């Protein structure tokens, strides 16, 4: 895809019949420029896809050798391992990284996207926030021919290039394992079902129940933000169910660890009274007692694959637009928290 001509402040000045100096000051929010004029300048700049010039020395070659990354959280072992994989590949290829953190909000994600656009990144890698509903904030990149790749949390139906695991299969295997251990009433604790990862794991959970002739009860599906507080509340809700579930598939290891503690504090034995399966294979799985059965989600490999595909595209070795979805294998790791039959 050929790049469009770079929009300058002179283009904006010409269209609004203002001086270039006025446009420059307006874009920098200078107090001497009135609000209405600032708004006109900002609106046209957005419409034309203007990017502020932070890298004048690179302007001639139109390359900054930087790649932007937007992640939805930083306190997750999975995300830090993806970043490690990205960083390994980008460092080898002499690219710098600029990392934006959306804190699980669309508003901050959109602001990060615009900031990275103005920083003139050569490409962008992103995983979507909890409440992101569309991809319009990534359109300026598409218009400029700047490649964008998504990982983990993506829009399944979009034409964008994405790297994911088979969340349906992972959810199915986790639930089928609990059924094979003799669990008859399996609950599921998950997060925002608008996100592909959680919706697909739920679909896998439902199908595994069906295939094992177990009833699906929506009251046993608890949706929350996976915070410590929400996890403890979900565990108390599970304990209060009548009859109480004898197995629970939890879509996040930290949430599973919190739930296990609440179950134990209530005098329940794991796995005898309630078997538990988590998701991600975070370090916490081996620290909790009993050790947590989980789905291994290969973060480093995911980071390496997404970065390598993006850099190969930038170097003209391959074209990411020809590949829609790259699926990485995950696997169920069975530990003591779910082994009812061995106890």
> Which spans of ≥5 residues are poorly predicted at pLDDT below 50?
54-60
- The name CATH uses for the topology of the largest domain is Rossmann fold
What's the CATH C level of the largest domain? Alpha Beta
Q: Look at the helices and sheets and give the structural class.
A: alpha/beta
The CATH architecture of the largest domain can be given as: 3-Layer(aba) Sandwich
Note the main sheet. 6 strands, parallel
Radius of gyration in whole Å, from Cα? 24 Å
Give the full name of the CATH homologous superfamily of the largest domain.
Response regulator
Say how many strands there are: 12
Characterization of this structure:
With 343 residues, the protein is of the alpha/beta class. The protein has three domains: 9-48, no CATH class; 62-164 and 299-329, 3-Layer(aba) Sandwich (Rossmann fold), CATH 3.40.50.2300; 167-297 and 332-342, Rossmann fold, CATH 3.40.50.2300. Helices cover 40% and strands 15% of the residues. It is built from eleven helices and twelve strands. The protein has helices at residues 9-16, 20-27, 35-48, 77-92, 106-118, 139-143, 167-180, 196-211, 228-240, 253-265, 299-314, and strands spanning 66-71, 96-101, 123-126, 148-151, 161-165, 186-190, 221-223, 247-250, 275-277, 294-296, 325-328, 331-333. The strands form three sheets. A six-stranded parallel beta sheet has the order 2-1-3-4-5-11. Strands 7-6-8-9 form a four-stranded parallel beta sheet, with helices on both faces. Strands 10-12 form a two-stranded antiparallel ribbon. β8, α10 and β9 form a beta-alpha-beta unit. α1 (9-16) crosses α2 and α9 (228-240) crosses α10. The longest helix is centred in the first third of the chain and has 16 residues, at 77-92. The model is unreliable at 54-60 (pLDDT under 50).
